[in-house]
TrEMBL record:
<keyword id="KW-1003">Cell membrane</keyword>
<keyword id="KW-0813">Transport</keyword>
<feature type="transmembrane region" description="Helical">
    <location>
        <begin position="129"/>
        <end position="153"/>
    </location>
</feature>
<dbReference type="InterPro" id="IPR045621">
    <property type="entry name" value="BPD_transp_1_N"/>
</dbReference>
<feature type="domain" description="ABC transmembrane type-1">
    <location>
        <begin position="93"/>
        <end position="290"/>
    </location>
</feature>
<feature type="transmembrane region" description="Helical">
    <location>
        <begin position="269"/>
        <end position="289"/>
    </location>
</feature>
<comment type="similarity">
    <text>Belongs to the binding-protein-dependent transport system permease family.</text>
</comment>
<keyword id="KW-0472">Membrane</keyword>
<keyword id="KW-0812">Transmembrane</keyword>
<dbReference type="InterPro" id="IPR035906">
    <property type="entry name" value="MetI-like_sf"/>
</dbReference>
<dbReference type="Pfam" id="PF19300">
    <property type="entry name" value="BPD_transp_1_N"/>
</dbReference>
<feature type="transmembrane region" description="Helical">
    <location>
        <begin position="159"/>
        <end position="181"/>
    </location>
</feature>
<protein>
    <submittedName>
        <fullName>ABC transporter permease</fullName>
    </submittedName>
</protein>
<dbReference type="InterPro" id="IPR000515">
    <property type="entry name" value="MetI-like"/>
</dbReference>
<feature type="transmembrane region" description="Helical">
    <location>
        <begin position="97"/>
        <end position="117"/>
    </location>
</feature>
<keyword id="KW-1133">Transmembrane helix</keyword>
<feature type="transmembrane region" description="Helical">
    <location>
        <begin position="9"/>
        <end position="30"/>
    </location>
</feature>
Length: 307
């Protein structure tokens, strides 16, 4: 396990390096200058670019930026002079994290519950109904669900607020719009895995010993059936964070996603790079933790890692 963990950490560092490098050069392909706003003259633009070092050769800019990045300096936002990228992340990340965590928690709880019900129900109508609802939810795009929920439950019925993230009521619509797809996937994974586990020999042996179905479910089969779900939770966390960009824009939530969209529109190179590196770090960390938890739960996986 130790060797595997170190190998994954090294792969994560290399991935971040490649991500930062690719993003650095790609943002430079965006037409125009970050300072070409409001009819500013070309002389002023050139002077400001010189102040920020944008008139230097691209390779020199890259070396300077990567050197600062290694020291933990993400630079200063071009559109908010005097405000560092780290300050922008510190201000907006808790909002996005709370929204994504709430959506992931809701997806896990409801998805697992529906998956269990689908696996253990004796009624074909219930099993097929859960499967059909899951297919519908999985097929609805994130932005379409957000707009539909906003129009019906906020604009038309007025049950929930339409903008911001100030009270628990503000979380309801954006969380629902974000949780639908992962909930459907988790429900299918849990249902299929449980159905397979219930047919295995250890379950038959437990029944022969007189154990009840509920005890067998929560003591034995659910832990094994949850391993595929855990393998999905890591990428799902990344999906929720990127998916929250749309939700934050539609529901006017001042989070990381809306800041990222704004940085692209304003050609704020340092902010785009800083947010990309930060999000990449979060995604790699979550996936590493997920892999380690799966290895801890599954002895076969641990043996495969040489633990």
């Amino acid at each position: 396990m130790a060797a595997y963990t170190l190998k994954r950490l090294a792969a994560g560092i290399v991935s971040l390096f490649v991500l930062a490098t690719a993003t650095f050069f790609l943002v430079r392909l965006i037409p125009g200058s970050p300072f070409q706003n409001g009819g500013v003259s070309s002389q002023v633009v050139e002077a400001v670019e010189e102040e920020y070092g944008l008139n230097e050769p691209l390779l020199d800019q890259y070396i300077t930026y990567m050197g600062n990045l290694i020291r933990g300096d993400l630079g200063v936002s071009y559109q908010e002079p005097g405000t560092s990228v780290a300050e922008v992340i510190k201000r907006t990340w808790p909002v996005t994290a709370s929204l994504g965590a709430a959506a992931l928690l809701a997806a896990v709880i409801f998805g697992t519950g529906l998956g269990i019900l689908r696996a253990v129900s004796k009624y074909k109508a219930i099993r097929e109904g859960i499967a059909a609802v899951g297919m519908i939810f999985a097929g609805i795009p994130n932005f379409a669900a957000a707009i539909l929920l906003l129009l019906v439950f906020s604009v038309k019925l007025g049950w929930f607020p339409s903008a911001g993230l100030l009270t628990p009521a503000h979380y309801v619509l954006p969380v629902i719009s974000l949780m639908l797809y992962p909930m459907a996937v988790i429900s299918r994974l849990t249902g299929n895995a449980l159905a397979t586990e219930m047919e295995k020999q250890y379950v038959l042996f437990a029944r022969a010993k007189g154990l009840g179905n509920v005890r067998i479910l929560f003591t034995h089969t659910l832990k094994n059936a949850w391993i595929p779900v855990l393998n999905y939770v890591g990428p799902a966390s990344a999906s929720l964070l990127t998916g929250s960009f749309v939700a934050e824009s539609i529901f006017t939530i001042p989070g990381l996603g809306r800041e990222f969209v704004s940085s692209i529109t304003n050609r704020d190179y340092t902010l785009i790079l800083g947010l990309t590196v930060f999000m990449g770090t979060v995604v790699i960390t979550v996936n590493l933790i997920t892999d380690l938890v799966c290895a801890w739960m599954d002895p076969g996986t641990r043996r495969g890692y040489g633990a």
